[in-house]
Give the backbone structure.
Amino acid sequence: MAPPIYSALIISLGLGTTMTFASTHWYLAWMGIEINTLAIIPLMSQNHTPRATEATTKYFFAQATASATLLFASISNAFLTGEWDILQTPNTLTSSLITLALAMKIGLAPLHSWMPEVMQGLSLLIGLILSTWQKLAPLYLIYQIQPTNSNIFITLGLLSIIVGGWGGFNQVQLRKILAYSSIAHLGWMILILSFSPPLALLTILIYLMMTFSLFSSFMLTRTTHINSLATTWAKIPILTISTPLVLLSLGGLPPLTGFMPKWLILQELTKQDLAPIATLAALSSLFSLYFYLRLSYAMTLTMPPNNPAGTLPWRLNTRHNTTMMSLTTTSTICLLPVTPAIMALLPF
Amino acid sequence: MTPAHFAFSSAFMLGLAGLAFHRTHFISALLCLEGLMLSLFIALSLWTELFNLTHNSASMPMILLAFSACEAGTGLALLVATTRTHSTNRLKNLNLLQC
């Protein structure tokens, strides 16, 4: 893609999210979300393959529907209460409709069906932007709604954790697995949102870090299938150590960083007298752990049936820029002991 | 719920049902999307007329029109791209990305 067009699209992506973050009026927030959607469509279909075009089409429909529903709910709220201020959205039918529209934007169950197919058709870099940057604006709006009735959030959250785990069971395509893992993690975020917004923010940040690290490992070896994951040992041996640790962190195992949000969320839910929900969430995240373990097994514990002496590929002098990847991978593995400091830094 | 509110709400719900249940053609979904945006345009104009008597946010419907035109253009570009790669605008042909 020509550099001026590419940079205009990337700047528009930044502009859209910034507008939504800076707005107190629902209309301006909606405009920011629309700009985000419109800016990422050419990026998604830039290599003009049939799969990319199909993924872009499905993404467009899902996002356009959700945006229109969001604006409809905001206008209904204005008709009923006369308020356009985001922080003054009272807890009525319209705020539930706004929540559902934003849930469809980010791909929470039961509004998640577009997510695996869309991720499957995209390149890994655009898939990374889709699962990290595009989630920020709608999550910020959900965060600001300040709900008092937590039923819809608990339902969305639990369903997403279950669907995110169960849906990834039978997948061998890495991008679909990443889509289902995204759904599951968003479920954890939404589950705790009505009880402790700082914990939801913590979960968002740690999820962004872990997903970035995993996507970067896959981009480094350009793998999109478990079979090609299995040959990583011959290309970049260090990845067979770091990527399983990142995967186990995503699965939420101590002593890795991914345990931190899950632990604090379960503690908060128990304090709110919702121990059965906490149990259900914890057990459902075992589903996700299963397919993370399968990926780790394929990478580290198996050696594909090749002639071992002849499997080393040509090591050309490529220049991978691994700064961000090394930062996020280290954070994904080592940050659990710093939990008290992180909790102290998140008072809002 | 005032009559105006009911009018645009039912228009929106009809369009949403059309968008959600489209089965055959890509372009019928795009038309329902346009209907959605039209009902929202009428809603915003009515809100300015009925409730905002200072008319200081009378530009809201026009901005909505601009965004809706951009979205329609994007949808049509995707229709053309889909017809180029999948040879038809029937939705049954969008089946490459299944497991």
